[in-house]
Amino acid sequence: MNFAIYRELLRIVPVRRLLLVGMIARFPHSAAGVLLTLHVVQTLERGYAEAGAVAAVMTIGIAVGAPWRGRRVDLAGLRRALIPSVIAEALIWSIAPHLPYEWLLLAALVGGIFTLPVFSVVRQSLGVLVSGESRRTAFTLDAVSTEVIFMGGPALGAVLATQVSTVLGLTVVGLSTAVAGLFLMWFNPPTRSSQPGAVAGSPSAADDDEAAVEAMVASAPARVFEASAELVPGARPARGVGARARVAHSFGWLTLPVGVVMVVAAGAGLVLAGTDVGIIAVLEDNNRAFELGWVFLAWCAASVVGGLVYGAMHRPVSPLVLLLLMSVLTIPMGFADSTFALALLSLAPGLLCAPVLSAASEKIAHLVEEDRRGEAMGWYGSALTSGVALGAPLAGLLIDSVGPWGGFVAVGGAAASLSLLCLAAQQVRRRRGRRVS
């Protein structure tokens, strides 16, 4: 391990500034979940189920909007792509707190679609600002900074909601995010290696060959159809062929290895959201909900430590292996009988939270060419968000059926099974590849 690489990386001014902007931009939204839930329950005097519906609708909006926002960054450039998000963040979250519940659902959906794409922009820019082992460290620092934000953001949101006003809190979230978006536009970090400020080195020859083969295979249908039309004068593609060719070309970056990373993202979101709900359920069952902060502090602090260790490693670890370990280690949390035991049991899976997300982001940056990387990062964010949207209801269903321990078993078992299936499929694919060669 080489911990000095952190010091070397943070000496790069654009990298340091980008990580700082990413933290500032994420902080308001880290408090938004708590504020939105308490706004529905306290201010609108609705139930927790209806509060969950608002969160689910916003999650769907984020999942739908992330790929589109990422693609706009690829096509129009960062500054032009962020303009709709900056306007929407300031406008929607200034109006939404004053709306009745039914209209709040619509506002949450639109707000989710136009959410400032901080995650994809930061990861995409880091992919061209650094290269080699430094790229893994940069992604790890970003994941660690996110964990630090989520140590304080929800707590601040709860204070604003209970001591001041949920209306003011949500308005502050929107305006603060818009200001962060303006700062990001002013900073304008590079998202491609051809832009000023990008210092990422060229990949190795082996990487070039691998990327070329993957790109050729992925885009083969489109090339074949185009070639047939050119070589045979007057020939027309069969009905539906042109549409299939366009779709194949649009998603040419979505190779099997990239698909596996998307599965990892969904599995990680599943575990994290389910663990979040499970922690609350265990503490409420023991009448210790007021000690929630201690468990979250232990869980997030462990993730910070794990991320720093992973970022200093010389060799990457498969994100599937990391997800499998995190999933299995999450299950014992359901058998905690005290706040101390729950905090202690959260340390082991917590150590793997940031490494899972860092390893997955590194894979995306390695496998997808930079002219489509923004879109890929957007889909990666959607996969993570989809896992989050599924994890909370799945955990809640088992908690209501069998007790608080069921939530941890449900999400841990589901994500572990998903990891094992993908690992088995990879082994089968490798064996077939050896037989063919």
From TrEMBL:
Please give the InterPro entries that the UniProt record associates with this protein. MFS, MFS_dom, MFS_trans_sf
Q: Where is the Major facilitator superfamily (MFS) profile domain?
A: 245-437
Gene Ontology CC annotation, any one: plasma membrane
Its keywords, alphabetically, are:
Membrane, Transmembrane, Transmembrane helix
SUPFAM superfamilies tied to this protein: MFS general substrate transporter
Q: In which compartments does the protein localize?
A: Cell membrane
Q: What is this protein called?
A: MFS family permease
| UniProt source species | Arthrobacter pigmenti
